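HUMAN: Ready with one sample?

ASSISTANT:
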Amino acid sequence: MEVALILLAAGKGTRMQSDLPKVLHAVAHAPLLEHAMASGAALSPARTVVVAGHGADQVRAAAQAFDDEAQVVVQEEQLGTAHAVGQAREALAGFEGTAIVLYGDTPFVQTETLEKMCDALKSNDVVVLGFDAADPARYGRLVMQGDSLDRIVEYKDATDEERAITLCNSGVVAC
C-alpha cells in the first residue's frame, strides 16, 4: 500500500525567541523539518505534503531542498491540528493508501516506529502513537478500552480521572 506523509510545519517558534520558523531551527546540523522528513522518507512515500504557515517561503525552500517533489501548502490561519491536516486535502486528491501525520518540530520519530504503525493498520482503521509519561503535564490523554483507543481527550477537557492517565497523545497518526 502506498504511503503519503503530511508534515505539520506551520508553527512560529515563539518559545524559541526567534523570527526563524520553529521547524527550521537546526539540530545535529540540519533543520528539525529535515530530520522529520528523513524519518518518513524511509517509507518511500508516494506523496509528501508539508503544511507551512509562519515563514512559508523559507519552509518551502527547506522542504524542497530535502525533497524536490514535496508539496508545500500554506495554512493561512492556525486553527488547530485537525485544520492543519485538512490543508493537505487538495494535495492528496485521488490518493488511496496510508496517510501518516508527522510534526516538523518532532525530528526523531524512528522509521521503525512508523513501519510498526503502518503494520498495525492491517487490523485497525487508525493508529495513534502514544507515550507513557511519568509526568504527563498538559498533554492530551489516550483513553483506552483494553487494546483499543476509545477517545483522545485534551487536558483542558479531561476529568480528574482522565488526567491521572499517563498514556499521552504524541499527535503522530497513521490511517
Notes: The mean pLDDT is 93. Residues 47 and 94 are 11 Å apart (CA to CA).
